[in-house]
Design goal:
The protein is an alpha/beta fold. The chain has 13 helices and 12 strands.
Amino acid sequence: MSTPVKTTTSVAIENIIRDVRERGDQAVAEWSERLDATKSPKPERAVAYGDIPTAAVLDAAQSVRTWHEAQRPHDIMIEVSPGVTLERRWTPLRSVGVYVPKGLVSSLIMGCVPAQVAGVERIVVCTPPEGSAAVAAAAALLGIDEVWAVGGAQAIAAMAYGTESIAPVDKIVGPGGAAVNTAKLLVSRDVAIDLPAGPSEIVVVADDGVDEELIRQEIAAQMEHGPDSRGFVVRVGDDLEAALAEVEGYCAEHVALLGERAESLAGRIRNAGAVFVGRYSPVPAGDYATGGNHVLPTGGWAKSTGGLGLETFMKTVTVQRVTKEGLERLAPTIEALAQLEGMPAHQATARRD
């Protein structure tokens, strides 16, 4: 089959996921042939070849590493009451799947480097066959050796449920188009995901008199991500509060602030994935080089969640220690609440010799 057949409806994506879950490698291969015109009878590792800008990849990775290392959360342990000690301990996930859209080496960096910093033992990369050579070459520079030339919903399903070739992971991260994001949401019933990072969005907030070319550049840069990208311009006139309310209403992935009054809003914006302040802070600087993560919430998700950070690749474990004297102090509370809720077995645990 020489011409890829595209399908992005929710029902179609659900069918792909079910098929991969049931038939493993064979289903991945068949869907990859249909959608990406591949010929292999099973998933194939991506093969690194061609020239990539090694220094730029390593420089970007180092910036991401520096920023994410600074985010490491602290374990805590306190005595809540006499004889009752609680500990909250952060631990890295064992395995993570990183989806990398076609040829986007920068997204590879944004997904893999924080996972490495967190201490994730196994990092699996899936990326569409077209452009996979550059992604594999960059992965090799980063010390990532499990890179599959598999894209789309079949890649998400393979990482979520596993196949004969691709072992399942504990969490899936990374941006993607409509099919990938629909697939991530569908498999999230069974495996954790970061967020549905979909089509790119930008709001440019500009004072009167700001260079219109700067506005055009910011919009044009995000439109390069695809025809479903969205760009908006908010003009800051006399009513700064109205401008802020408009920005907050968009809940955009990126917000660029241009001009003194616009820039004064930087510390007040809640609903945004990332905020870029001033003429020398173009959004592509964050896409590639500052070290800030460019996997950010879209589609209104910025109202309730942020982008990838070190905590994305970690989880907490709570350890509780209670002495005999501590339990004696807790017993009346345990008994009263257990009795209220009709839980006699719970109540019975409150008194121990």
